[in-house]
Structures are given as structure tokens and as C-alpha cells.
Amino acid sequence: MVLTCPVATGRTTQRDETTGHSRRNLLRAGALLALGGAPAPLAGCDLFDRGDDPPPAPDPLEPLVAGALELAGRHRAALAADPGLAERLTPIAEAHEAHAAELRRVIGRTPPSGSPSPTPGASAPTTTGAALVAELRAAERTGQVAAAKACATAPAERAALLGSIAAARATHVEVLG
Amino acid sequence: MTRRAPAGPTPALTAALTAEYAAIYAYGPIGVRLRDAARTAARAAEAAHRNRRDALVLQLTAAGVEVPADHAGYALPFPVTDRASALRLAVEIEDRTAGFWRAALAETEGADRNRALAALTDCALRATRWRRVAGVNPLTMPFPGRPT
Predict the structure, then answer these.
(1) Looking at residue A114, what is its pLDDT?
(2) Would the CB atoms of A175 and B98 count as touching at under 8 Å?
(3) B144 to chain A: which residues are within 8 Å by CB?
(4) Do B140 and A166 touch (CB under 8 A)?
(5) Which parts of the sequence are annotated with region: Disordered (chain A) (predicted)?
(6) What residue ranges do the domains of chain B occupy?
(7) Does A107 reach chain B within 8 Å, measured CB to CB?
């Protein structure tokens, strides 16, 4: 109720005469409150999130979250194998972790184990130095293509984030060149 | 009937065009303060921005949109007096232009969005290269074009 009032103020006359949107919204909000049945309506969200509903369909961005964590894991493993690469690889690993966190925020689901962490299963690299960097470079290129594809077909509100991720991966390729 | 009203991507693309105008302008004073490979890179960057500008002018014209005019000069955020300030401005110009192309992503689709993404990516790449030339670390940003 409180939340809907500012929307209606100042436009009441106009809206009522034309579409009646504001009134409908008020009614809808009232229905939600009635369903929640609690004096604090925001706390009622849990009722909808954790019911006995079937699990929601996977978000199309889920594979990108996994991809970002996989890339982060690769860089972290490479850092462990060759600490001399720290200056180049640390910001890249951090970028992938930030991408995963932001993607999860957009998807709107919290990760099962709290904050995002690199894929622990990333196997320790068998190479070091230039060969290791070349492997990372190839993985970044693949990741750039995946993010660009996702950007091309994403709804408007996700396009900017996916574009930034694709561009970031392109700059990683550049740094690893 | 007249042409379709300019809705959709037009504001974002006209904004990107003005950003490209400003970038082209900025590379003038930048190039003057650079030598050798860096000067060559500045010329290549300027040419790339001119290409983006030309493509945008064509695109907007074809859509029946009034193309915003270029200006004789643009206010630079700080004076370019030497190599260091030239490189700093080059980084800033690319980061800033990337922001306009990123904003265009949400307002475009299909081939237009792919073009905007290519432009965003190119700006991010040039910003990274300029940071490397300037010796600035880190070389990359987690979210190119995102307002900070």
C-alpha cells in the first residue's frame, strides 16, 4: 500500500480517466498483501520463493555463470602453478569472479554455497610460462565468443552486462597475447 | 505517410555518434604529443573512430533520422601537454566512448546490437593497449563501458 501511493499521486485524475492503471495496480498490491497476510509485506517474498512449486527452469545465463567460474578457476590454478604471472593474471581472475557474481545477481538466484568461488575442480595446469598463457588465451577467446552470442540474443536489460563481459574477455585475450 | 517515427535505438546511437565525433577530435592533440609506434597507434585509433562515425551517419540517415552535427571543437577534460597526458586522454576517450556503445546495446537488437558490441569491444581493446603503452596497471577493467 505504502509503496504504491507515490506512483498514484499527482496522476490520479489523469490515470483514472484514461486507463485506470493506478487503480488496478493498487488492487493487485492489495491482493498480494492479502495473500502474504503479514503486516510486513516485503518479508512475504519468501512465501513465493520457497514453496512446494517445481524447481524453476534454468536461466539461460546459467552456462555463462559456470563459464565465468571455470575461467576464474583456470587463472587461479595457473597463478598457483606459476606465481610469476601474478601481475597479469590476478586482475583477470578477479574480473571473472566479478562477472559470475553479477550474472548471478541478474539471474536473481543466490548460489548454493554463498559467495561465488572459482571452480574447485579446475585441474592443475601441466605447463607453465608461455604455453600456460597460450592455453588461457584460447579459453578467453572461446569465452568471448560465448558472451557475445549471449549478448546478441539477450533481452535489453541484460545486453549491457553481457556486452561488457564479452569486451572484458577480448581485453584478456589482448593481455595474454 | 512519413517515415517511421525515430523511436528505439535512435537516442543511444545519436549519442554514440557525438561520442565518436569527440573521440576523433581528441586524437588530434593526442597524436601530436606521441612519437613512433604510439603515434601510429593514435592514427589507427582515429581512423577506426572515423569508420564508426561514417557507419553511424549512414545508418541514421538510412533510418530517416536527423544526424547530429559535428562541432569545430570539443572541451578536453584536461590539457594535453606531453606524452603522459596524451596517453591518459587516449585511455579516457576510449573508456568514455565504450560507455556510449555499451548503452546502445540495450536499445538495439540483431545486426545493430552486434555492431554496437563490436564498437564497445574495440574501444575496450584500445583502452587496454593505451594502458600498456602508458605503463598503467591493471591493463583491463572488469566491466568495460560500465559507469563507475
Answers:
(1) 47
(2) no
(3) 164, 167-168, 171
(4) no
(5) 108-127
(6) 10-134
(7) no
Q: How far apart are CA B52 and CA B16, in angstroms?
A: 9
Which domains are delineated in chain A?
5-49 (no CATH), 62-175 (1.20.1260)
Q: Which three cell numbers stand for residue B39?
A: 603515434
Asked if residue B60 lies in contact with residue B11, where contact means CB atoms within 8 angstroms, the answer is no
Q: Which residues of B touch A95 (CB under 8 A)?
A: 140-142
Distances (CA, A) of A29 to A2, A24, B32, B95: 10, 9, 62, 42
Cell 579459453, residue located: A139
Query: Is A53 at the interface with chain B, CB within 8 A?
Result: no
Q: Is the pLDDT of residue B10 over 70?
A: yes
Chain B partners within 8 Å of A94 (Cβ): 142
Q: pLDDT per residue over B86-101, tens digit each?
A: 999 999 999 999 999 9
Which top CATH class is B10-134? mainly alpha
ipTM here = 0.94
By residue count, chain B amounts to 148
Q: What is the pLDDT of residue A13?
A: 38
Q: How far apart are CA A24 and CA A166, in angstroms?
A: 41
Percent of chain A with pLDDT over 70: 62
Q: Under an 8 A CB cutoff, do A174 and B125 touch?
A: yes
Taking CA atoms, A33 is separated from A24, A38, A43, A50, in Å, by 14, 7, 11, 17
Q: What is the pLDDT of residue A54?
A: 77
